[in-house]
Structure formats: structure tokens, C-alpha cells
């Protein structure tokens, strides 16, 4: 009589089937996990922007104005505002400095507003109130506050950190749809605010919610707070020739304003990797310590400014000059202080966040309608209109309309 015995294991075929099933499940699960993580990072990034929006509104409630982009103390003993200075900050501070007490960073604000803030290495520092210029000049790179990495200024999706940057930021103020006057506003190279030509230039060119070195208020936003961008998300540089974060030198301002599309032209980008600059024939401004978003306290456009000219996540460029001396635009001491085309961008898929004047945070896609990219921008230089005449509606479509505050433009489509 035969007796049956219980089988104690799996056959090789059964084991292979189980392994295959597990492999398929893992293959399906990993993208879902990665997508969930990115969704969480994107939500965190949006929450940071909401916090900044509340801070800006609370600042306006307290002082009846927006925090000033490029503010601070005078130029001290240096000849022009673009030079490093340890005895003053040459009105180089970004609006992010002023908003600190309203975003739960009162302790850092106290260090900045009082003399003798600590060095970044923790030792005792000897500085003037409101600190030195937030650049890479001798004597001010050790200033502790300018090197602080502030969590509410960082998007979790952006991996950039540490040297050669100081404290990074992924959020920048909106300067409108023109590059001219974006570093000096209504001032000259010596911070003279009584020069008639520089004042007229700024009134014509500074069409965004924030105006460098000038008081700006919500009442100035005639197109409506809900229809006007006041801040945008930016990507910080990783030293990898990214067209969004390592701007190239693109020539003179007077030539560039006539056709800003030349910034990311086909001859300058890598043919096989169009998100990166070509490996030859392109002059980039990153010399180690210069890069998009590298200095949250620096009010120059490459660090804390954005424009609504080119769509999000497109190429950034700087000019060979960017400072008005009373008769012409002249070269600055370093490239990071020059005028530049600085689109917003992010490491989120397909677009970036923007902060509207009413405090709403919206996600703008890279494909937003941006008008005629070969059109000249509004540009008044000295006493002549080089590009479009002042007061014109933005030539850059819905995107340009969102960045201008008082051009009498109607937003007639969803974004």
C-alpha cells in the first residue's frame, strides 16, 4: 500500500513566479513613493511661500509699505555702491531682510539691526548695525547673519547647500517685465536719489510690485492684488552649467532689451541637453561664489529677483553693465551686480510657484502664454526710450501681465 507524503517546500518555478510578482510590485510602487515624496515637498514649498506672504502682509500692516528691495545704510567710504563695504551695506539688502521679524525670525533680525553680530564660525564679530554688504568682499564673508541657512527660504525639492554659497533662497521678489533699473532703481552709482534721469528711468522701467531702493505699497498695484505676482520661486545653482541658475554674459543692455529671446538661443545651449549651456563658446558668470539664489540677503536680481519676461524654467542672462552713473549705464565691479534676465523656476515637474499680491500661492506651468519673446521690452536709458515706450502693456502675454502692477491690463484667462 502506497502512502502519500506532504511536500515540504516550493518548486523552483513557484519561487521564480513569486520573485517576478514581487519585482513587478516594487517596480510599480517605487515611482508612486517618489511621486508622493515630491508631492509632500511641493506642499512644503507652497507652505513656505504662504508664510512669506503673511509676513509681507503683516509688514505692510505695520509700516504701510512693502519691505524695500535693496535697502539699508549708505556707501560709507567706497566710491560707488557696487563695491564691497564693511562700514555700510550700500543699500544692497534684499526685501527678505526686512520681513524677518514677521516670519518668526526676530532673533536673527536683532543680530542684524544691532552692531557686533557674531561671525559665521561663532566667534565674536565687530560690525556696524545692519551689517556689511552681503557679497564676497574682503572682511564681510564672515558676517554670521548673511550666512544663515533659513528653512522658510528653502524649497525641499532643491538640493543646493553649503559652500560656495552663503545662505541660499528659493524665493525672489518680482521686478516686472523689464531688466533696466533692476539693480539701482531711482538712484545713480553714488546712491544719489535726486537725479532726474534716474528717477524717470525707474518710473518707466520698474513695472513690478517691488522697486529697487524705493518705497512700494499695495496701493501702487492698480491692476489688482489677485492679478499681480509679487514673488516667485527660483532654483539655486549646483555648479552644473544649468541655464536657469548659472547665467551667461549676454552683451550690452541697449542691445539685449530689443530681443531678450537671444538669451537662451540655440547656439548657446547644449544640443543634446538643452537644459544646460554648451561646453564651449559661452561665458558664464559663476566664478565660484556667484550663482542663482546664493545670497538671500543680497538684493541684486541674480540672487533675489525674478522677472516675467521669459516663461518659468528658461535661461538666465546678465549684461555687461548695470549701474546708472548720471549719464549712461556703466559696468559694475562684479557681474552679479549687473542687470539681468532672471526668470523664475523650480525643481518641481512642469513649473514653479508664485505668490500673488493677495497672498494666494499659485503654480505656474512652463507653458504659460508668454506673448512674443522676440519683442523689445519697455526700456528707458538715460533720457531716451531704447525699447518700448513707458506705460505700454506688456508684450509678454499673460505672463507679462501678471508681473506688471499698473499697466491697465485685464487678466481674461485662467492661470
Write the layout of secondary structure elements.
Blueprint: H1 12-63, H2 95-98, H3 106-113, E1 171-174, H4 196-205, E2 229-233, E3 248-249, H5 253-256, H6 301-304, E4 305-306, E5 317-318, E6 323-324, E7 329-330, E8 340-341, E9 351-356, E10 361-365, E11 380-381, E12 384-385, H7 397-403
Parallel strand pairs: 1-4, 3-5
Antiparallel strand pairs: 1-2, 2-9, 5-8, 6-7, 9-10, 11-12
InterPro entries: DUF1559, N_methyl_site, Pilin-like, Pre_pil_HX9DG_C
Biased composition (Polar residues): 184-205
Region (Disordered): 184-207
Number of strands: 12
The average pLDDT score comes to: 90
Q: Supply the helix-strand structural class.
A: alpha+beta
Q: Helical residue percent?
A: 10-25%
Give helix and strand order, one letter per element, not per position.
HHHEHEEHHEEEEEEEEEH
How many helices in DSSP terms?
7
In terms of DSSP E residues, the strand content is 5-15%
Strand arrangement in the largest pleated sheet: 4-1-2-9-10
What global shape is seen? globular
Rg from Cα: 24 Å
Distance N terminus to C terminus?
A: 82 Å
Task: Return residue spans where pLDDT drops below 50 for at least 5 consecutive residues.
Answer: none
Domain DUF1559: 34-370
Protein name: DUF1559 domain-containing protein
Biased composition (Polar residues): 184-205
Region (Disordered): 184-207
